[in-house]
Write a structure and sequence with these properties.
Blueprint lengths: L5 H6 L5 E3 L8 H9 L4 E4 L5 H12 L6 E6 L8 H17 L19 H10 L3 E5 L5 H9 L3 E6 L2 H9 L4 E5 L21 H11 L4 E4 L5 H9 L4 E4 L19
The protein binds flavin mononucleotide.
Length: 259
């Protein structure tokens, strides 16, 4: 049964808690365990092809009938600049040499951004996961409209008030307020603009004053007291990443003892 608070009603969950999407760490097993417990599990497909992402969605669906979130990277696609790339490769040459390796002759983009990946959009419109979230920016407005028209709830991650305003203006359903304490991927929209490095509580307070859509606090929240504190500052719910890393369902490797 869904909780009665606005975020739980929106996400059709019992508790307004989201397990953060974490590329390399979150798994279908982790997302399903969280969703089966009444919160919202997430899978991270920011580094996946559409086929691999479809398989991850199917693997999660096989483990839970509950809603879960599918997370995408919306970074600005890289533009080729041979002079700039050559300078980086020259800079990195000694590090390759240290390990007896040869640097590549050129650089290529490691992950395809969702903003440039129409087959991924088509896959999502076919699969219709309950929730989709965006990191490092937003896709084209028509794509957001298409996902919402398919009944998918959309979340965007903001590190500043300006990014939150863009998320709200694009018609997304809720905003994840990611403070600088957050582990892992830092969701700034435009790295060239720099990072204001607002803490989670300051950002939540700011967004609570200026945004109309539900706010999900993320960054440095590890327990019930942290959740209560975020809620008392105006968050409708929370997103926790680091706190889930040690779960048996996580894909994080055990420490090797080496530095
Ligand atoms: C190992 C790791 C990987 C992450 N990868 C992603 C990701 O793929 N997509 C995303 O939107 N956020 C990612 N994040 C950020 C989380 O969404 C969230 O903002 C963060 O975990 C909250 O801070 P906390 O770790 O202190 O709870 C990652 C976080 C961690 C710890």
């Amino acid at each position: 049964m869904a909780g009665t608070d606005p975020l739980s009603r929106l996400l059709k969950i019992e508790h307004p808690i989201i397990q953060a999407p974490m590329v390399g760490v979150s798994t279908p097993e982790l997302a399903a365990a969280v969703s089966n417990a009444g919160a919202l599990g997430s899978i991270a497909i920011g580094t996946s092809t559409p086929d691999a992402a479809r398989e991850t969605i199917a693997a999660t669906r096989a483990l839970t009938p509950q809603p879960f979130n599918v997370n995408l990277f919306c970074h600005r696609p890289a533009s080729a600049d041979s002079e700039h790339d050559a300078a980086w490769l020259k800079h990195l040459q000694p590090f390759f040499a240290e390990f007896g390796a040869t640097p590549p002759s050129g650089l290529s983009e490691i992950y395809r951004s969702f903003v440039d990946d129409r087959p991924m959009l088509e896959m999502l419109l076919e699969e219709r996961p309950a929730v989709v979230s965006f990191h490092f920016g937003l896709p084209p407005t028509e794509w957001i409209d298409a996902l919402r028209a398919a009944g998918i709830v959309t979340l965007g991650c903001a590190t500043t008030l300006d990014e939150a305003r863009q998320i709200e203006a694009a018609g997304l359903d809720a905003v994840v307020a990611q403070g600088t304490e957050a582990g892992g991927h830092r969701g700034v929209f435009d790295p060239d603009q720099g990072d204001l490095s607002l803490g989670t509580f300051a950002l939540v307070r700011l967004l609570a004053r200026h945004c109309q859509i539900p706010i999900v606090a993320a960054g440095g929240i590890m327990d019930g007291a942290g959740i209560a504190a975020a809620q008392s500052l105006g968050a409708d719910g929370v997103q926790l990443g680091t706190a889930f890393i040690l779960c048996p369902e996580s894909a994080a490797l055990p420490p090797t003892g080496r530095c």
